[in-house]
Each structure stands twice: as C-alpha cells, then as structure tokens.
Amino acid sequence: MQVKTRVETTINGEQVEFLCEPRQSLLECLRDIVGLTGTKEGCNDGNCGACTVMFDGRIVTSCLVLGVEANGREINTVEGVAEGSALHEIQKAFLQGAALQCGICTPGFIMAAKALLDQEPNPSEERIRFWLANNLCRCTGYDKIIRSVQDAAAKMQETNA
Amino acid sequence: MSTNGYEPNMVLSTKEFKVVGTRPVRHDGADKVTGRALYGADLQLVGLLQGAILRSPHAHARIKSIDTSKAEAFPGVKAVVVSTDLPDTGDEITDIGDGDTPLKYVRDNVLASDKVCYKGHAIAGVAAINGHIAQEAVALIEVEYEPLPAVLSAPAAMRDDAPILHEDLKTNELGEQTGKVSNVSRHFQFKLGDIEEGFAAADTIVEREFDTSTVHQGYIEPHNATVLWNNDDRIHIWCSTQGSFVVRDVTATVLGIPESRIRVTPMEIGGGFGGKIPVYLEPVAALLSKKTGKPVKIVMSRQEVFEGSGPTPGSHIKVKMGVTKEGKIVAAQASLEYEAGAYPGAMVTPGAMCVFAAYDIPNVVVDGYDVVVNKPSTAAYRAPGATNAAFATETVVDEITQTLGVDQVEFRLNNAAKEGTRRADGPKFRSIGCVDVLEAIKNHPHYNAPLEGPNRGRGVAIGFWFNVGLQSSCAINVNADGTLALVEGSTDIGGSRVSIAMQAAEVLGLRAEDVRPTVVDTDSVGYTDVTGGSRVTFCTGIAAIEAAEDVKQQMVTRAAKIWDVDADAVHFEDGTFRNGSNGSSNGDSAMSFKELAGKLGKTGGPIVGRATVQPKAVGGSFSGNIVDVEVDPETGKVTILRFTAVQDAGKAIHPSYVEGQMQGGSVQGIGWALNEEYYMSQDGVMANSSLLDYRMPTSLDLPMIDTVIVEVANPGHPFGARGVGEANIIPPPAAIANAIHAATGVRMSRLPMNPPALMEAIWAKERQ
To answer: Which residues of chain B lie closer than 8 angstroms to A143, CB-CB?
Structure first.
C-alpha cells in the first residue's frame, strides 16, 4: 500500500483538499477522489484530449499530470464552465449547433475551446482546427464542433461589444 | 456560413410536419455540456472494487497451466477468476443475435480456456481495492503457454497448410456441413441470372483484387462494466452498451443462469459504431462480484480496447464486372474473403448483400467466406462489411467509366438500382433513393465546379446499406401539466432520444420540449434490440408513434366521457380535442391536450400509452460522395480539399443529427481510406495500439463536410424515416481512391492509402 500525500488545491474556485498516492494522475484524483467525473478518460496517455482541464491557466491533459502536482495550483474543469444555472456561450453553441453526438469528448472540447476564445476572441477556422487538433471526436467529423466554436466566438464578441 | 456560394447543409424535403424536420435542442444536452451526464466509468458505489484483466501476450498459444496464487496473496486483492469459474458449456449451441454459434466460442472470448487465439485475449480477472493494485496483481498471474504459429489474413488462413485455430471448426460449404476442419467457418453464395451468359454478352470486362486492413471503430470511451451480484442472487449490471438486453441475455448465457435474474442499467455511452454490441467485461465482473460480495467495476485501457475488443474485418476481395459498349452492366462477380478474427462471425454476409446492390445487374454471383484468423474477434462497424466491398466495386466502376470514356455519374445513373430491382441476395427493392442520390450529386455545385491545380483530382462513389428493423418497445406517461414522460430501451449514442421524442410530439401536437425521453433499464421497458443497423429512429420511432397513438385513443375516450358522447364523435387535431358532432370549437366542446391531461385524475385515472413493434418494411439507404484531393508527389500525403456527402435518409426527423451522422460516417470513412489500420507484426502483435499511432482524423486533417439530405420517403414508416447511421461510411474510401487516381493516374487496390503505400504505387507507375 502506498503512502498517501495530502494535496491542497483550488478547483473551479473552491479550496479542495484530498489524499492521493504519488502514482495517481490528476485525472484519477479528479474523478475517483474529488468526484468530478465530468472530465473523461479516453486513452490515459495524452492522445485523445477527453481529460483536458485548465491548470494554472494552461490547458493540459490531466492524465499526464500527477495529482500531487496540483498542490497549490488552480484547476478548472468542465463542471466550472457554466456560471450558476447559466450556460456559457460555448455550451449553448454546442447545444444549438448539435456539436455533440455521444458527448464523451465534449467536456474536453469545451475546455479547449474556452481556452482558445479566452485568449483569441476571433480565431479563423484554420486556427480553431489547429487548436482543437489535440481533441479527438469520433462521432461528428468535427464540422459542427468547429461551427459551434465560431458561433460562440461571434456571440461572445457581441456580448463584450 | 457557406464559403462556396451554396448552402453547405441542404435538405431536399418532400412533406410538411410541425415537429419532424425541426432542430430542437436535445433533452440530454445540458447534462453533456456541463459534465453531469453519467457514463459507465463515472459510476461510484459504496464498497466498489476495481477489476483488471490478464491478457495473452501471444497471438496463438495453448494454455498449459494458470497459477493465480501469487496474485490472490497480493495485499489488496479480493478475488481472481479464470475460465473454470464459468459453467462448462459442453457442445451447446447458442444464438446471441447473429446465428447459431457454439457457446464455447462465446465463453472462450470472455475468458480463454484451453487456448488463446489473439494477442490481448482475456485469460483471468482480478478484483482489488483499487485499479493500480488490480493491475499489479494481474502481472503476478503465471501462465504457461505453448506458443503456436499465428495466421493473420484470410487468404493465408484459407491455405491447406495454415495453422488451425479451432480443431472443432468444420466448414459449412454452401449450406452443407462438410466435416472438413479448416479456418473457413462458412462459404456461401448469392446467385442471380446466368453469370457465364452475362460475361459472354459483355464488350468490356474489368477484374481486380483488393485488400483492406483491420480497422477499429475508435469510440473515445473505453468499454466498461460495473456489476453487483447481490445476496439474493440477482445481478445488476451498469455498463456502456449498444444493447442493454443483449448484455443481459449474453451475460446470462455465459453464466448459465436465467436472464430474468439480471437487470442491466445502460449508462450514457461514449460511442459504439457497432463495437459496443459484444459482451466482454460483464461476465467477468459478475464472477468477481459473486466471489467478493461487492460491486466490481472494470474499465478497459485504450490498448485493451484495440487488442481485446472487436475491430472490423480486414478482407481480400475480387471483383469482376462486364459491361456492353452501350454502358450497361451485364454481369458482376465477387469473392469476399473476410477475417472473422478469432471466432466465426465476420460481417461478410452484409458485405455480400451490399457489394453490387447499388446497380441493376441481371447476372450476379457473389461468394462469401467467413475465415478465422489470430486477431481479435471482429465486431460490427457502421454498415459492417459494406465499406470493404464498395471500395472494390466502386473502384472497378470508376475504371470502367474511364475505359468506356463515359461520365461516371451518368454511367451509374444508367445502371442504378430502382424500385423493383432484384438484389443478388433475393429481395426486390421497394421505393429507394439510389437515382435521387446520383441526381443530387450530378446537380451539386461541387460536382460542377472546376478543380484546378497540379496533383489534384475529384472522385465519386456510392454505397448502399439495407438498414434493419428488429424489435423496440416504448411507454408514454401523460403528466397532469400536459407533458409526456417517454421511456424507451434504445441506448442513445448520437442524439436518438430527441428524434424519438419528436415523433411522439408530432402525433400529439406537442412540442419536442414537452416530451421527456429516458432510456431505462431492462426491468423497466419492453424488450428492445440493439442500437445498430440504423434502426433506432426508424423502429423505436415507430414504437413512440404507436405509443403516442395509444395515448391519443385513450385521451379521446376520456374526452368522450367528459362530454358524454361516443368516442367516434371526438376528433383530435393540432393538439386539441373537439366534439365533432357540432363541428365547432366553442365552449366546452373543445379541450387542449394540456387541459384534458389535467383532468385525468378525476375522470378515470392516469393514462399510459404503450407499444411494442417489430416492423418488417425497413427502408434501405443510399449514399454518395464527391471528394476533391491533392496528393503531395514527394511524400504521398493526401489532403482532402473538399468533401460532399449525399444520403437518402428518408424523412429527416432531426436534420442536425442526420447531418451529424453523415459527417461523422464520412470522416470515419476518410480515416479508413487514408490512415487507419492494425499494424501487425508477423507474430500477430499490434504495433500501434495507442491513439498516437493508430491515427484517427483530427480537426486539422479535414475540411468542413458538406451534406445533402435526400428525402425519399420510406413507405414503411409513418413519417417516411429510413435510418441514416451507416450508409455514409461506405463510399469514402472508394471516392478517395478514385480521386487519387484522377490526381496521379495511380489506381490503389489496398486500404489504407497512406503515404508509404501511395509512394510505392507512384514509384511503381514511374518504373513502368
């Protein structure tokens, strides 16, 4: 049995403490210890993007980060994207645009798309495709995802204008 | 949105509806964009143990002994199970959905007994207090193997000197048991007309051979199962599956218990495409739960998904077609040798049904071979078997049109299957959309746009999938506020809940938002077959329509009771019940659905509508692609410049999700065409079992996928829906191969057409 380490971190703006083994990934800690199962596991080796979260303002695949590395850091997950009961423009656009079918990749796409639009409010189609190339979707062929990110960008600019 | 001067997503509609054909937000959407939706791996239960599976390192070996003692003694391990923990099957034959199969094969694919037949074959299961310990314990199980030579392709496995996978597997030759032990489980034939006469009448004959690699469905969510074997010997399974009743029945069969003791709760499912029909983990988790008295969860790793679940068959295909100088196909012959993987059941029958189905050909012979090889036991993958076959047929058709010097779409139109055309496998087509799909291609701006620049080419191909009906059940509860709670048994992979709800809403004059659809467990709804065969919107849709009609009839009776008139006098239109005897809508002789729903408690009690259906009049779907590619002559890399998908969906219930199916299927077809394959060593070890090395298309690899929904109403569905999930994956590899030929002059006969394969072909042409 491995000795557990105490981790103090901030998740979606809330102070969170948990105990984890050194070998446990941040993904595993989020899902199995903290209970935030919105972040998904598709490959556990950094290639599908389903576990994408924000880590101190950078997008990371949480399966490639150790849980203990979260100590003192700020983590944002899909559960923190909506503000209270109000969906974020990206979430609304995904629903309106039918950008999900099975939905398992959706949390990762929303986190990645939000990171893009937070820093580049008006990306080109090519830029969106490049940015989202680390997130695999097997259902949609990406068309409606790309269009929904474009729609969300337009809406967010309207709101900010 | 359009960048090409036309609507990217066109719907060619035929009939007006109020709800059908609109694009409401899906009911499960909010949960899926906020992370609340619970998929199988998300389930947490008190006392939950984690399981792991020991898998074979060999592609083919006899198991001489298994020693689990070290694993069992490992701290934190609660139980270990092997195949002897399953009941002995003897010679029992079972039918778990695709024909008679020895039960031993089904059981051995869950846990191998005397031999392992592929690298990744499950041998033992471990339950422990966490997944890491379970994995460590798996490594402590000692298995003594006697390695055997592996055979990895259908042609190799069909040779007389090939290593034999199953000493008890005897070839069924054209319906007769031969008694001959071989790797060919079955050879069957479809015949139409006189093939000799047909070829004799042909002026041009083209005959080619093709190979396609093993590919995986590539769903992003790995297989998972959580099972509690309760103290009353009842079993509860939570899992990601395309068919909760199939999981129930197969698990019961493998465990040798009545299916009524098992309840399956289908969790949200993260993709399937056919690959989540088979049962792998549930019986193992059940045994582990029985031994420990606790719920056990097993989740596959991505490597296990590639190596231990069912990909789709690799194949070797010969196609020969004869045409007259007037451009009429008079004879066609095909031989389809499909790899079943470790156990019989390659999807070769549907391949044989579809190989020439797009054309009206008087003389046809199709031979199909179901061949076992040392690869994972194959599963369905979106129009299973048809994509391989169409790659061959549509490439030969392209070559014929160039030999004859005729337009490729006109040639296809002249030979297209129509209502009344007989398929080689027997059925005559009813109303179908083959001609309509070809006309839509011919008239599409993409087909008529100039394509300029070096190393660029345009290709076209079409495909057919028959779709299935099977069985579905549905129940509708009327709420007092005039909304409906709809329960169904079709696990929802691609947004089907909304299209089912819309069909019920259409019948009762409600909005889609007024119907709350829920996919429930196997104890809570009537038997419902798998989500597969493009059948859910069609068949479960009919169940929803009939359940809504049942609600309507009961509501009419209730209105008649309130008005004290005969039920015949009450009419229902646009969501309002009217007393038709005076034909007016004034006063108490008209009541909205909502008003009446509020009075149920005081007029006789609740109303539940119900329906179970088994529709026979299934409508097949045709699809077609126009694709422009650019080939880099230095590297062999193919770039998709523009892609248009056309499909006859029948009436599109929710056009956004119809387009989504077409776009998703197209992109899977693009991946199959250009990148994807199981890269196997000679020993049968998959060298690329990660999502880095098994390279599926990313957003950066693709353009937008333009769609045209052709709506040729299916006479077998009240609103004309056909089912749209599968036919879209069939044409892309052939269309891309034809585009590559147009760009380079090179004719590709192997999938995938990746850079090394394309460069070899380009160099070979240059050497000529």
So the answer is: 659, 663, 702, 704-705
Strands A52-55 and A58-61: antiparallel
Residues A54 and A10 in one domain: yes
Q: Which residues contact A30 (CB under 8 A, 6 or more apart)?
A: A11, A36, A37, A39, A53, A62, A75, A77
Q: What is the mean pLDDT of residues B7-27?
A: 78
Model pLDDT, residue B23: 97
The tally of domains found in chain A comes to 2
Same domain for A55 and A120: no
pLDDT by residue (tens digit) across B568-615? 999 999 899 999 755 554 555 899 999 999 999 999 999 999 999 999
> Closest approach of chain B CAs to the CA of A32, in angstroms?
8
Instruction: Return the C-alpha torsion angle A122, A126, A132, A134, nearest 10.
Output: -150
Which tens digits make up the pLDDT trace of B452-497? 999 999 999 999 999 999 999 999 999 999 999 999 999 999 999 9
Q: Look at A97 and B696 and tell me if their CB atoms are within 8 Å.
A: no
Q: Dihedral (C-alpha) B79, B83, B88, B89: value to the nearest 10 degrees?
A: 130
A–B CB contacts, 8 A cutoff, strictly below: 192
B103: nearest Cα among B37, B168, B183: B168
CATH of the domain at A117: 1.10.150.120
SS3 B299: strand
Element counts in chain B: helices (H) and strands (E): 20, 32
Q: At what angle do helices B244-255 and B103-110 cross, to 10 degrees?
A: 100
Do A64 and A97 belong together in one domain?
Answer: no
Q: Are residues A20 and A64 in the same domain?
A: yes
Domain of A50: which CATH number?
Answer: 3.10.20.30
Taking chain A (161 residues) in runs of 10, the rounded mean pLDDT of each run is: 92 98 98 98 98 98 98 98 96 98 98 98 98 98 98 94 72
Which chain A residues touch B691 with a CB distance below 8 Å? 42-43, 45, 47-48, 136
**What is the CATH topology of the domain spanning B41-149+220-305?**
Aldehyde Oxidoreductase; domain 3 (3.90.1170)
Helix (H, G, I), strand (E, B) or coil at A128: helix
Of A60, A80, A100, the position where a domain reaches its end is A80
To which H or E segment does residue B228 belong? strand B224-229
Say if CB B72 and CB B133 are below 8 A apart: no
Q: Check whether residue A34 and residue A63 sit in a common domain.
A: yes
So where are chain B's domains? Answer: 41-149+220-305, 472-613
Q: Tell me the per-residue pLDDT of B302-314, one tens digit each, with 9 for 90 and over.
A: 999 999 999 999 9
CATH architecture of B472-613: 2-Layer Sandwich (3.30)
| Same domain, residue pair A14 and A63 | yes
For residues B42 and B484, the answer to whether their CB atoms sit within 8 Å is: no
Q: What is the ipTM of this complex?
A: 0.98
Residue among A43, A91, A140 minimizing CB distance to B691: A43
Across chain B, mean pLDDT equals 95
Residues A69 and A21 in one domain: yes
Angle at B650 between CA B648 and CA B655, to 5 degrees: 85
Residue finishing a domain among A30, A58, A80? A80
Residues 54-93 of B with CB under 8 A from A: 75-76
Note down the domain range covering A11.
5-80
The answer to whether the Cα torsion of B593, B598, B604, B610 is positive or negative is positive
CA dihedral for B414, B443, B738, B10, sign (positive or negative): negative
Closest by alpha carbon to B271, among A99, A98, A102, A48? A102
Q: Are residues A106 and A73 in the same domain?
A: no
